[in-house]
Write a structure and sequence with these properties.
single chain, about 140 residues, alpha+beta, Glutaredoxin, 4 helices, 4 strands, about 35% helix, globular
Length: about 140
């Protein structure tokens, strides 16, 4: 039976995206998430199987389930899925799945469109610290 795997693909030069990764790394006590930049080799492999994702440039979550199936969360559903998996008080994020997707995605798209002007942009992709290296894919 395949192991469960959850990968957050993020814009490696976006300060907001990097802040979200930092947030998750600190709170994911079970180390259930892996991280990879959209600009990296791992995402190129995902694009080969899912070319429709090439139009997205912020956060994408790929959840490989133990039954061999795969879920892909984009826009607002990605961060909500990840937050709900953190456990504890973060489980309340599941309640936001009740918000209609067109509403939460509209807000997500607005922030995504303005993220560089609001939060800035790095010159290069985020490099993991030595302690984080096992969590990051190329």
């Amino acid at each position: 039976m395949p192991a469960e795997r959850i990968i957050l693909f993020f814009d490696g030069v976006c300060n907001l995206c990097n802040a979200w990764v930092d947030f998750l790394v600190r709170r994911d006590k079970h180390k259930q998430f892996l991280y990879a930049p959209l600009q990296g080799e791992t995402f190129k492999g995902v694009l080969a199987a899912h070319p429709e994702l090439s139009a997205l440039d912020s956060l994408i979550v790929v959840h490989d389930r133990t039954d061999g199936s795969q879920e892909i969360f984009t826009h607002s559903r990605g961060p909500l899925f990840l937050a709900s998996r953190l456990g504890g008080g973060w489980s309340i994020a599941r309640a936001f799945f009740l918000v209609p997707k067109f509403v939460s995605d509209a807000l997500y798209r607005l922030v995504a469109r303005l993220r560089y002007s609001l939060f800035g942009k790095k010159e290069t992709c985020r490099l993991p610290s030595p302690a984080e290296r096992e969590l990051f894919l190329p």
